[in-house]
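re: that complex we talked abt at group meeting.

here r the seqs, copy pasted straight from the sheet so there may be weird spacing, ignore it
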Amino acid sequence: MNDILIPVLILAAIGLLAGLILAIASIVMAVPKDQKAEDIRAMLPGANCGACGFSGCDGYAKALADGTAQPGLCTVGGSDVSNAIASYLGVAAASMEPHMSIVRCLGSHDNTTDRAEYEGMTSCAAAVAVAGGPASCTFGCIGLGDCVNACQYNALSVRNGVAMVEPKNCVACGMCLKACPRHLLTLVPVKKQAVVLCSNCDKGNVTNKVCKVGCIGCKKCERTCEHDAIHVDNFLATVDAEKCVGCGECVDACPRHIIDLFNVE
Amino acid sequence: MIKSLLAIFLTAILTENYILNKFLGICPFLGVSKKRSSAIGMSIAVTIVMMIATAVTWPIYYGILVPKDLKYLQTIVFILVIAVLVQLIEIVLRKYIPSLYNALGVYLPLITTNCAVLGVTMLVIDKQAADPANYGFLQAMVSSFGAGIGFLVALVMFSGVRERMELNDVPEFMKGLPITLVAAALVSLSFLGFSGLVTGMLG
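got the structure back, here u go
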């Protein structure tokens, strides 16, 4: 009995003494914490995604308290957090339009084909490194889910060979933008507007060969638009979100049905 | 007496270097050796921790564990003591030398799990067991100080090697960790040249 009891007691005594020393030391040598940074840290969402460009929420809070950063960089918290911090710091709130990530590709298995079979590691970046990737469209989604892995909010999924964003989960942190080797994901302001769901810059006949729905650069949308909001450049239509009013004329005009009316509600 | 202490000190630095000969504390060796300034700060912190840890664990071992016949508790008690010491040093640094505290950053708490520190405290006791007549507390302290300085020498030398490596045209497949490990192996190999030096010199 004593064989066990004595070592346990000795170890407990040493541990207790050590804990006591640390407790006394931390009280005697307490360092006043930066209350401002602590307060701001409490306002931030605590996602630690790094979208603001600082090392997590703690880093951003510290920079805000020091005055080296501006409120409004936190895309996760959005305008609520930005306004709260701005009023706490007594500076003008930066206006923040809510954004959302979209995948500019509709190249599912039904619409496009693979030119080769890829059997390497499950990563888009790795697949692209092998002769430009297995998909016949060299601009389109590879569907191996680098963006899905980058997303901390469960907002992305790969369905039928193409990535899709779940709007209600997306916080516009921008992590998927960095993860996609094809740069298919972009942040768009959340409002009623047209979005072109293709990134193919090839000439029309080349695009036509590799994808049933790729943008062929026919300029029908450009001619239809009354607000000068959609332009075809490099055989690819792009929408100017500021000018677009969301009338939906181009959506009906597109022969490839790749323009979508973006409406979160 | 002084000669034997000098021999212990030099042995700990050169022939029994904890990083390059015993392969303890490789994590900070690879992690903190990118910049010379942080390598020096880290080494000084490790040296201080090594010496205080030996000064505390030695009396605990011979004052409590040996009389009670509890030598088998050595590892767990030493880890506990080292962890507390590192925490204590962290608190003291934050209060009195905040610049060094910020410079060391995450590496300071990582000294807790630095096996070189545990290795020093345990190996000086092994050495005492091997030569009880001539090896005492003083020798143990000199040995732990030498171990810390040896850590410093290895880290500073290797940071110099790495700073030079930055400018070199390293083949793609060797970039980053592979070339660092090869360089570490070569530096370690070069320390093999010191074997027998101290005994030959101070005999």
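couple things i noticed - Chain B has one domain: 2-195. Chain B touches chain A through 19 residues (CB under 8 Å).
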